[in-house]
């Protein structure tokens, strides 16, 4: 277990900068192995998307950023985000997480203080993934610091932020 947040962040930096290689498989639940398809990281937490479309996370779980229904940090083991269908892409914001399905549906969880998870209303945290209703089919999602931007299949962009705490188009 990392004894210092600085050390943890430094290790994440080393991994993401390529100075520490990322293994091609990661041990997961029931001691099986999964193949990593994508990694998304914020300063405080990271998500791993497997080839089979499952989402795992580690790091700070403040505001439910890992999607496992708790707010307990995971610094040694991966935890699986609960209740998601098969996912094709993930992104992270500041303690918020986003997952995009093959059908172009968006799921979001974690910090929602500024309404960056869409769906109306702001709250400190949503600990389980929830589908954001009322959006067109999406092809890409990127989380930012207290906001997210998505690209619609039609070519338009969707901005999730607190502008009357709903999805702004």
TrEMBL record:
UniProt key word Repeat: yes
SUPFAM superfamilies, per the entry: RCC1/BLIP-II (SSF50985)
PROSITE patterns hit by this protein: RCC1_3
UniProt keywords, alphabetically: Repeat
Keyword Repeat: yes
Listed Pfam families: RCC1, RCC1_2
Organism: Cohnella rhizosphaerae
Name of the protein described by the UniProt record: RCC1 repeat-containing protein
Domain of life of the source: Bacteria
